[in-house]
## 1
Amino acid sequence: MKNLLLASTSTLYKGDYLEYLLPELELHFKDCKTVLFIPYARSGGITHEEYTTKVALAFAKINIIVKGIHEFENPIEAIEKAEGIFTGGGNTFVLVSQLYKCKVMEVLAQKLKSGTPYLGTSAGSNIAGLTMQTTNDMPIVYPQSFQTLGMIPFNLNPHYIDNDKPSNHMGETREDRIKEFHSFNSIPVLGLREGSWLEIKGEAITLKGNLKARLFRQNQDPEELESGFDLSYIK
Amino acid sequence: MKNLLLASTSTLYKGDYLEYLLPELELHFKDCKTVLFIPYARSGGITHEEYTTKVALAFAKINIIVKGIHEFENPIEAIEKAEGIFTGGGNTFVLVSQLYKCKVMEVLAQKLKSGTPYLGTSAGSNIAGLTMQTTNDMPIVYPQSFQTLGMIPFNLNPHYIDNDKPSNHMGETREDRIKEFHSFNSIPVLGLREGSWLEIKGEAITLKGNLKARLFRQNQDPEELESGFDLSYIK
């Protein structure tokens, strides 16, 4: 039975890293003494070590020990033996490239299907969708595929934002970009605002946090979904 | 001798399509009766036909006839025989995918090296750089490579914007994203603001328009470059 939390962001404005999620994480990882951290997205270009240290400090507050996947000789075995797993944000192209290079994409999918508690934030949530094609990130490396874990039957757009440019700027809005995605793809996309997360328990998918989420479907008007809503009907 | 105009945007705020560039285009394409339009980026998901009609209307103002590359049976031949070429904006992933699918990426590079006048706007400018990896676009299709035309010895970031998010949003700024690119790549990146363009004549690269451009190099602080500056030293 799947057991995932997929958060739009790790950090809220003026908040500490993972702070707003800690009460949830304490419950979510209640049976874990340790959590395996996947730092591959390398937020801001920091090293795997630096990123893991930052995560370990946050998890120490709920008495969980964090180990980075890069500390293990065999990343496949590290995933297979993990009590709980967290993939942090950064660049989704870098994350997906590295998951494929280390041959752990499929292993991670299998492990999560078996019920191991998982937390994703930003890029780490993005990879739970069918593809990474609704990321906001720059394509700074070339991944061998855009396919991702498929833990939910749609795609996510983390850090979803309604008005993301000054009105005199001619670049695309976030909504424009997702509409463009639907010129070429039929996969539904959920725009997850900062402060929202999805809770996946088996096949149930619930929108959590105080905000609405914005659902985009091919050839349909976008829809605002309420917090608490079961989203498992979206396909 | 290369002869290219690479514009950040096709359209300025409250302006018509290509309007601000028309005086330049009249000179740039002065020896052309016809211009070949490459609509592959399909701005906003419109059809190749619709996009070409829009471009033809703008070029009619300077008495140039526009033909879309999709109207030709053989796109390679269409490029080889073109008097002038324009690649419009839209989604860079879609554009680059299609250029590779039609096997015209290398043909286009050779044609431009031979001196055929070229105009690029947005995605059409982006592909003149070494790679498309500093695009702002969503990866809505998977191109066979991120390598592009290499008409200039650096990359472009079109629609460059200084403050592209509200201060309480935790996603990356444009500058953050380009810095992340430099965690993994050493290619310089020129942030080209809307209203700026590059003029390439042989090996000379001049910044045009009224605005400064922002140069990003690996491990260096960004630099503001003045309009009129010769940028051919950037490597």
## 2
Amino acid sequence: MAVAHQGKIVLYSYWRSSCSWRVRIALNLKEIPYDIKPVSLIKAGGEHHSNEYREINPMEQLPALHIDGCTLVESLSIMQYLEETRLQRPLLPSDVVKRAKVREICEVIVSGIQPLQNLSVLIHVGEEKKDAWAKHWITRGFRAVEKLLGSSAGKYCAGDEITLADCCLVPQVFNARRFHVDLRPFPIILRIDRDLERHPAFVAAHPSNQPDCPPDTK
Amino acid sequence: MAVAHQGKIVLYSYWRSSCSWRVRIALNLKEIPYDIKPVSLIKAGGEHHSNEYREINPMEQLPALHIDGCTLVESLSIMQYLEETRLQRPLLPSDVVKRAKVREICEVIVSGIQPLQNLSVLIHVGEEKKDAWAKHWITRGFRAVEKLLGSSAGKYCAGDEITLADCCLVPQVFNARRFHVDLRPFPIILRIDRDLERHPAFVAAHPSNQPDCPPDTK
């Protein structure tokens, strides 16, 4: 893992990290060229816990984005920075209430679901209980997301344009499937996920299309 | 618990909920008048789990804000709505990188710490293990916050103006004390918390000054 150089946009990413994936989608949607520096959450006890990476992201989590001469962490903060500095292909509506509704869905996923089922927490929960634990919190969160989408969704999470909410939703659906969550009670989530699975920006951001995806899982 | 009426700004709040507290601080800093509808996290197994409140916030969490004819949930999304619609007393810097740094600190707290130590998760962790669990995740998060503050802080979390990061930090320090986290390794966090503890907007938002604070804990 070499440290990024100024000038180039570099995303510290792990193929299966849903938080890295959110940012990959946003970068792709805005057609911002970037390089990927893979940081393995598995190798050598996790490269994200190395002294070198801790200097980049003190939370020892992915992603981090090197851009405009600085290093940014926390996926939702990074995506809002992209939104405020790269105005092409807006990922937040212009209407203030709709913006709030998009951020609301983002936060339910980013703070209400993902942190409870991420790797470091599951290690603490223990091998025996971890699947039931992850399933419980994802199901609780998706129940809320489905309800919110009932009033906000059009073709996508908030109306007919792709927003930050969609960037957060798709990776979370992938995680839900990994933990065998029953998704049948969430028809709107399933429909949006299906509609986006062939979108080029989402395809390019998918774990299976990352340079660090192990060949045997592709 | 009666449902809020259009026109008035109403915050569904619980005195000790750190997420409600963040929004109370932001409302106070911007001098936005609001009424409080207390929702007890304790009474009758938790009023936030009632059918009535689930219609207001499908995540069954506090806070919710009734404002401008709609109901918003998720504290960080609410605070950003206030920031975008009530321009007085800005709580985000105008510089885009500084805005990202503020949101970064917010997210570390809002998604990296609080969700792991909130009531519903601690119930699942179990009585015996819950204190050690909360202490672990708060300490991990504060280590990252302290490091981020090392480069962003002035008098407050991001420079010399109070921002959304301060609205998130102060309630989290209170929670850290509840769980007996050793705060000595976090001198910047402690200094900022101390500086803000007498600020009128923070005093008025404090749990002990809420209408639903039990008299014997004041």
## 3
Amino acid sequence: MRFLSEQRLDDGIVEREFTLGEIPGTLWTPASASASAPVPLILMSHNNGLPKAQPRLVARARHTAACGYAVVTIDAAGCGDRPRSAEAERTRAELGRAMRAGEPVDEIFEALIGPLVENAVPEWLTTLDAALELPEVDDGPVGYTSWTALGIRLAAVEPRIKAAGFFAGGYVPRAQREEARQLTVPLLMLLQWDDEGNPRRRALELFDTFGSKEKTLHANLGGHTGTPWFEAEDGNRFFGRHLK
Amino acid sequence: MRFLSEQRLDDGIVEREFTLGEIPGTLWTPASASASAPVPLILMSHNNGLPKAQPRLVARARHTAACGYAVVTIDAAGCGDRPRSAEAERTRAELGRAMRAGEPVDEIFEALIGPLVENAVPEWLTTLDAALELPEVDDGPVGYTSWTALGIRLAAVEPRIKAAGFFAGGYVPRAQREEARQLTVPLLMLLQWDDEGNPRRRALELFDTFGSKEKTLHANLGGHTGTPWFEAEDGNRFFGRHLK
């Protein structure tokens, strides 16, 4: 993990940009975190390839770090500002066209998100390994939050992940819908009741599918970006129960 | 409100039994509550006529009071240890028989719960009035929690109720399913995903029906009595946002 910049923010958070091979990432830690007082790690992803600098992700990462966590995010292969394959570009264009035309989008989502997850997983695991080597990061239980499809795969293959928060979950590739049955870690799934891009019925079916014995669903009225502020606090308490 | 007994409990809570005309009730307040430091009121009901001394209700009432609330419960007409009409007894017996036989129970529930709600409402409003007169109870916003059908009616008719928590909600009389559309107060609905007596689909439909702009659903794996302990804390934070 090669740090490119370090900035101390008003809220007592240290924000560091880094690269890890080809992977660009950002790490937020409380300024008080140290080798003698390390903090647990939370992997905070973004759905469908949005950039790691997206303001809602950054705001939530800082809020989470302020509650005593090291929060790491990356632009995985094909995500954020990373180059996209010509095929992915074509699929995204086709998705936009189909959505505007009101046509079924399942197969297009599958063709877009399936490979995105496959390619993102090894880079997130590399990031997890590197972050746990930092002295200010506790090498105990790790949390995961946000992009549902990626999180299902990560939680299925990486036993150091001990708690996972999932958002939305209306469209999840077939492979991850199957893997959801194998999960055993405590889960908090967050659903916006009127999410225009995530059919409610499918999200509820996915929640039903998860194999975990401790799973909690929080649903709130409103669209995709309307999650109320108190859910960020609820999320931090969820991680507090399982990582601290 | 005529107090019959007063007991100071280990957790710093004062528990008082009272009568209000024919109505027997219990009030829990923090020992620190006083005229100069009054605490908000929460009405804590019990579904389908269970007694106010039921241990799960008592535990939750004490936990809530310890977070800085006056919590009041009553055995309303036909509930708990109050006399039941011969008709109600017959309907309960018929309900048990139909459930064991796997027959449809909607109309029997309607015949049992409809009148129970109708008769309970005026007694709960009388209790609310009396509790707010106590100097240690804040006469500002009031909360309501637990029995869904009763709470819908109370929140629809009583503007002093500013936040409501509902539990289960699989069977709600027709009148309250209609009244649910009129509600405007913030709501927290708590659902057990595998509640044997409360069909999930109906509870989700009811959540969809509520007119409130701020409404949150919490669902957890497990049966009717399996609600995890952290939901009591979440409930108290919900009331904290709206009553304090």
